[in-house]
Design a protein that fits this description.
By secondary structure, this protein is mainly alpha-helical. The protein has one domain (3-220): Tetracycline Repressor, domain 2. The protein is built from ten helices and no strands. The protein has helices spanning 3-36, 39-46, 50-56, 60-83, 89-106, 109-119, 136-150, 161-176, 178-181, 192-210. Helix 5 runs parallel beside helix 8 (161-176). It starts with a helix and ends in an 11-residue tail after the last helix.
Length: 221
């Protein structure tokens, strides 16, 4: 095997090991939170020694930061692309709402990580969920201001984050908490039929709060 081939093989193996660690860490952090998660447990699950894990991540904080980034960066990039597209403002917002719901439903760990993240906010005061795309809220705010100025949006409130919190909060609660707080053997939040209802309600809330005409066909609805 040539040196170049050996180097590529080694790099590929390292990337796979790193991805496996991040996937295991996501499960632990989403279930237990930052404080209760033990690096030993993550290493044991993967059949690694603690020093081997430290080869990739020097401490728990570094692993946590990398986990948050790896978990949320694809979603942040997707939302950013939708908000910057050439569609109308209302269409961009509706597509972003639909993408948010679809992404969190498809990956419930995202909702659990957010709840843990918020609960441990005092211990993690400088972290941001969308740290790799910290302009995302401002992109939404800019669209809100532009839409209100043009008349395309006729919001109920001057602050767009009422609408943002309604959509973000309800989906996080719906995916991560509703069955624990409102137990019912007949309700499964991730059932496709129930997800479709939640998605419609999220879009309806965003349209109502932002003053978007509910056409019933945008964003797949």
């Amino acid at each position: 095997m040539s040196k170049i081939s050996a180097s590529k093989t080694s790099s590929s193996k390292a990337e796979r090991s790193k991805a496996a660690i991040l996937a295991a860490a996501e499960n632990h952090f989403s279930r237990l939170g930052f404080a209760a998660t033990r690096l030993e447990d993550i290493a044991d699950e993967l059949g690694l020694t603690r020093p081997a894990l430290f080869y990739y991540f020097r401490d728990k904080q570094t692993l946590y930061d990398a986990t948050i980034a790896a978990s949320f960066e694809p979603l942040a990039n997707k939302l950013g692309e939708l908000l910057e597209s050439n569609l109308s403002i209302s269409e961009r917002i509706e597509l972003a709402v639909g993408a948010w719901v679809d992404s969190v439903v498809a990956r419930p760990n995202l909702a659990r990580l957010i709840m843990r993240f918020v609960a441990e906010g005092i211990e993690q005061p400088t972290r941001l969920i969308f740290a790799q795309n910290d302009q995302l809220p401002m992109k939404f705010f800019g669209l809100f201001q532009e839409g209100r100025a043009s008349g395309e949006l006729q919001p109920l409130h001057d602050d767009p984050f009422h609408a943002a919190s309604a959509v973000i909060g309800t989906t996080v609660f719906y995916v991560a908490a509703v069955t624990a707080l409102v137990p019912s053997s007949h309700f499964e939040p991730l059932d496709p039929e129930q997800v479709a209802i939640h998605r419609r309600e999220a879009l309806h809330s965003a349209r109502r709060l932002l003053g978007i005409k509910d056409r019933g066909t945008a964003a797949g609805q």
